[in-house]
Amino acid sequence: MSVVTIAELKAQLNLDSDLDDALLAAKIDAAEAYASSFIGAPLPDPLPATIRQAVLMLSAFWYEQREAALTGGNAYSVPFGVHDLLQSQRAWAV
Which residues span the membrane (predicted)? Predict the structure, then answer.
């Protein structure tokens, strides 16, 4: 079960329709898996605000950019700032 809700992502995207709920849920699941992999640990509960924001940013980005195509500009696989938000929660192995 996702820690970030579809309602939170809809607020992030300013959506008011239920038509894409399944797609939004898939984007949240993928973003949470990415965040967990990046920090090297399961997502904590309660979820820190920095991780919540990173998951929302990444989910929204993947929802809006559904194809791996570029029409001018720079290609980004992860929105600017996501790694910075997750960095403080990273599990470091020494």
Answer: none
